[in-house]
Amino acid sequence: MKNHMETSASHAGLFTMALRWVIGWTYFSAFWRRLILDNKLIPEEAGYIGEKFNHFLPNALGIQPLIEYLVLNPEALQIAMVVFTIVEAIVGLFLILGLFTRLMSIGVFFLAMGILLGSGWIGTTCLDEWQIGVLGVSTGFVLFLTGSGNYSIDQYLRKKKIPFTDKKWFQFLGSGELPIRNLAPKVLFASIFLFGLTLFTNQYFHGGVFGTLHNKSVKPKVEISNIQIMENQISLELYRVEGADVYGSFLIGIEIRDENQNLLKSLGQKELSEYPIEKIKNHYVAKIKPGKHSLILPLGAKADFLIDLNDLNTDEIHSIKLIDISGLEWIAEIN
Predict the structure, then answer these.
(1) Which structural domain range is residue 86 located in?
(2) Which among 126, 176, 180, 236 is least buried, having the fewest CB atoms inside 10 angstroms?
């Protein structure tokens, strides 16, 4: 009976070999492209992974405080990104090799859960990050159940009868028969939980179960808040909370108007493209900054923006309008 169960466990691991290799490469390749093909762990250079992490912030589920802490503390963020990259490399490589497969599957589960909760709302076409997250979570669970079979280091060590492979801890962290009694109802409960998580996050992020389907990655949205009028300046907080993570919002106009919508002051495309850096106080690693033809607002960027009023009568100011190059407009009234 024992040999039959061991054979069944070995077959289960064999049947999921392609899944193990593919999911292993998806995580190892993150390390490969981020550090070997191109170093994306340098904060000062374009493509820094910390800025992409910053993109998750506006609509993350449950882990916003952690993300905000990291993007507010660049040194801690860089350490976290390095550790995260190393963990992905180890998890991916060990899965491909089939070494400590079940332990690595737990790593897949939590890495994918982080992707799901942090960036499950991002995806311009096919709800990309949500699909990656839920499939990664479920794949981690399946690989924990099966372990690895033939063509894995776990199985090689077991066939060589290395002493620790008979220990229960190795069966939990490596491969072989999973030493859990009454496994079927536990698998059913976990599967129901994962299916429920899938439906809940699909609905929460995208309205994909009922109601109106929505996608916060399709077009940019900028929030205007904390407007303060001083003697010769007006300060406002700009926060880009929606839109594609790979594409900024490009402001080509800012207008200040009175109660009758008469234009009091405007900043045009050229002025915004040459806007003084010292009048933009960024909060996070993703920074609002002047570009070649406009003011660029990356996803997740937040900044205090100062506008000189010169001799403008501040009592007349009623509203501020931002104009995106796409034609979108955002208006905030001053109470």
Answers:
(1) 2-206
(2) 126
